[in-house]
Amino acid sequence: MATTDLSPLSLRRAPLLRGLQLLAGLSLYGTSMAMITRAGLGLDPWDVLNDGLTKITGLSFGTVTAIASVAVLLIWIPLRQRPGLGTVANVLVISVTVDAVRAVLPDQHALGRQIVLLAGGVVFNAVATAVYVGTRLGPGPRDGLMTGLTARTGRSVRVVRTAIEVTVLAAGWLLGGSVGVGTVLYAVSIGPLTHALLPLVTWRTGHRQQEQHQPAAP
Fold this sequence. Notes:
The protein is mainly α. It is built from 10 helices and no strands. The protein is globular and about 50 Å long.
């Protein structure tokens, strides 16, 4: 199976449409984070880490998310990843959105609502990841690890994303973050879902798009 090209694409290529796609993806990502945290069935691996840090520092969930994102950017250095517009927007939009949605979305205690909120949050998270990474305006801190390791190791997005999530989960659990059935669901499903969705929403170069629409030679 061909690998989806996630390398940066010039800002001159459809800047308005890609900018809107980026904003939509990041806003949906922050919303999905809030949904999962309010479901009360266990957090996704990165948010297990954020939850643990929140308990230690007393800061808001969004603030801790932003601080952790900046820290992750330091790991980009050996991977030779370069930040872009999407990288900066990721830190700002997601941290603000998750706090805003959590402020109006209460914790759920009825099992049926918890399950719906959790399942929706996981699916939305995968869609959001594919949508904003697919703009090729620079991945967010966490997904920079994913794309950087994918490029360096030659492994698929599915394998790399899942490995990252499991590693972060272990660190978050050690810090006292909330772990549950939702954590397991997220860890095993987000990689395959993102892998399947990326080709559908990723911007390609004009040359490659033309090749895709050319009829096969007789």
